[in-house]
Design a protein that fits this description.
By secondary structure, the chain is an alpha/beta fold. Helices cover 36% and strands 17% of the residues. The two termini are 27 Å apart.
């Protein structure tokens, strides 16, 4: 019997490359692959449902499901994770030396509803007492090419979101002193249908991290909470799942196999440094610790925290249960 052909939209990173280059193939499935950046991918999928299987913003999946949009059902494969809060950057002349100084400030964001911004706001509010209503937001992506526009998002009560005009960008406004800080900055590389900022702000002398030691802040948050934030998951069209429910488990197995390859390659590359005897023992232990796992059981706490943040911030009217987000046959994965 011929394999089932499914269109797949995916970003390129070390964990997805074994799928992209064909080293790993899900049993019974041939992917017709489109490799995209997340901004364009999510806009196209939310607007036009172009792909049978796609990466998806976890924040946006929760939002559309809470509104009764059931076109997609989640697969517990998480291709992108990041500590977003330590990535907050500020203008050096804005007088911002810590989270408390963000009150009353102008904050740029590519997409208010994106998961990285959800995590940043959630950590600011729950760890430092700075709520979204305490800041004024400026969103770069225009309504006709944004995820917010695709899902009909409007600002929650008490939250101010201004539109950055088309002739400007987060980068230009930061460097002009028209913004004090930004979160979840996305620098475009090459042709980009969605984003406009093309400056490496992290390397600019007028820009500095909100936290003097971002890595230490990430470690503090992880030690306290055990949470390594999830940004992107995978989703399948519900119509495809209802016809062929077996594909979900086969896709999970394929991504686990791809992740195993990446872990083995990482260990192999690191072994060269270990053999020199110059790498401290605690570094070896850290490098030997797997950071990424798939399936719902290992990631439930992180996802449930994101769901609580989403409801707290007014993006969803209730805390979305995992059973409404993910495929029924993947709930025990």
């Amino acid at each position: 019997m011929a394999n089932l052909q499914l269109s797949l939209a995916i970003t390129s990173n070390p964990r997805t490359r074994p799928i992209i280059d064909g080293r790993v193939k899900p049993d019974g499935i041939d992917f017709i692959m489109t490799v995209l950046g997340p901004a364009e991918m999510f806009w196209r999928q939310l607007s036009f449902a172009e792909f049978d299987v796609s990466e998806i913003s976890m924040s946006e999946l929760m939002m559309i499901r809470s509104r009764g949009d059931d076109r997609f059902i989640g697969i517990p494969v998480f291709t992108t994770r990041r500590f977003s809060n330590p990535a907050l950057l500020v203008h050096t002349h804005a007088g911002i030396d810590g989270p408390a100084d963000l009150k009353g400030r102008r904050v740029g964001v590519p997409e208010y509803v994106q998961t990285a911004a959800l995590w940043s706001r959630g950590v600011l509010e729950n760890e430092f007492g700075i709520a979204p209503r305490d800041m004024t937001f400026f969103m770069e992506r225009v309504p006709e090419r944004s995820h917010a526009g695709a899902i009909g998002f409007v600002a929650p009560p008490g939250v101010t979101i201004n539109q950055i005009p088309p002739e400007k960008s987060i980068a230009s406004m930061m460097l002009a002193g028209e913004l004090d800080a930004y979160m979840a900055y996305f620098r475009k590389h090459g042709p980009d249908m969605i984003d406009r900022s093309d400056v490496d702000l992290e390397a600019h002398p007028d820009i500095k991290p909100l936290f003097a030691d971002p890595a230490a802040e990430a470690a503090r948050y992880y030690k306290k909470t055990g949470i390594y934030p999830i940004n992107h998951g995978m989703a399948i069209k519900r119509a495809v799942f209802e016809r062929e429910p077996w594909v979900v488990l086969n896709i999970i197995k394929a991504f686990i196999a791809a992740n195993d390859i990446v872990e083995a390659e990482r260990s192999e590359h690191a072994a060269y440094h270990f053999e020199t005897g110059l790498v401290p023992a605690d570094y070896r232990k850290a490098l030997a610790t797997p950071l990424i796992s798939y399936g719902l059981k290992a990631n439930r706490k992180v996802l449930e925290t994101a769901a609580k943040f989403s409801n707290q911030q007014g993006l969803t009217p209730r805390v979305m249960p995992m059973e409404e987000l993910f495929a029924p046959n993947a709930l025990e994965s």
